[in-house]
Amino acid sequence: MVIGGGAAGLSAASVLARARRKVTVLDVGEPRNAPAQHVHGFLSRDGMAPAQMLAIGRGELVGYGGQVVQARAAAIEQLEGRGFVVRCDGSPDLTARGVVVATGLRDELPAIPGLRQQWGVDVLHCPYCHGYEVRDMPLAVLGGDNRPFTLHQASLVRQWSSDVVFFPNRIVLTSEERTRLTSRGIRIVEGAVAGLVVKDNRLSGVELADGQIVPRSVVFVGPRFVPRDELLTGLGCEAGEDGWMRTDPTGHTSVPGVWAVGNVVDSPAQLINAAGAGTKAAIALNHFLLEQDVQQAVTAIPSDHR
Which of 91, 158, 263, 283 supports an S-S bond with 71, CB 3.0-4.6 Å? Predict the structure, then answer.
């Protein structure tokens, strides 16, 4: 059972299906990158619409004998013997010998009017994903709750444009932080940000609380990344000191037979990283099942024939 039909989940499911395992993907069709217009940084898929990429992935999986079920997993429970039961909202429960959780994360944006509406259009967070497409434009970086991410973002975005304005908003900069920014040619505009100015569904500026409007074409902002890990915590998987699920290099959690991959355990993971993590988890899960298969076969042999 693979829960989540994004890059990580579909990659894991396809590898398992090619290994001739019976695989079902549970997905509700709410990918994190749905607002984005294009995928970048994924070799051979550059510029493709996210929905198109997922449709191709689902088609490949089905071609290998896997299936995709549109359902929301509500809980994972261990069975007394081997395996798990996945409780689904409004759908029959499903059982599986192993589970891969690839439910991703959600982006919590600062409470600034206009940010959510323009998210994925001209409000962005990853310059590696979208920076080239907005190169040389008038860019802004808004200070948010994720202070380290925001300050790094302001310095980083400068690589794509010489016209960058940083709005600290609620962040109080130290003299060293201010020097690091201004030395890169980044203009700092103080004052609380009241909202974004949008005309014809496109960003035209950033409005401050005093009414001043600073013309900008694109805004970068640092969200707070919140993993969608309720299934894992409900199952009793161990978390690390940072609150994120603890996994080994293959994505195996503290619960034998349960793997977690992609943004649910790795917030910086790009699509191509998530796909790779899904592949690695699938191979590890197949080896886990193989050992069960071998043990079952050995047990079935009469003792006097071993």
Answer: 91
pLDDT of residue 305: 67
pTM above 0.85, yes or no: yes
CB 26 within 8 A of CB 2: yes
| Confidence at residue 141, expressed as pLDDT on a 0 to 100 scale | 97
**Residue 147 has what pLDDT?**
86
Q: Where are the alpha helices (DSSP H) in the chain?
A: 7-18, 50-63, 115-118, 127-130, 147-157, 175-182, 230-235, 271-300
Is 132 within 8 Å of 160 (Cβ atoms)?
Answer: yes
Question: CATH number of the domain at 2-106+224-305, please?
Answer: 3.50.50.60
d(CA 37, CA 49) in angstroms, rounded, equals 6
Q: Are 219 and 197 spatial neighbours (Cβ–Cβ below 8 Å)?
A: no
Report residue 153 as tokens.
């973002």
Distance of alpha carbon 85 from its chain centroid, rounded? 25
Where do the domains of the chain lie?
2-106+224-305, 110-221
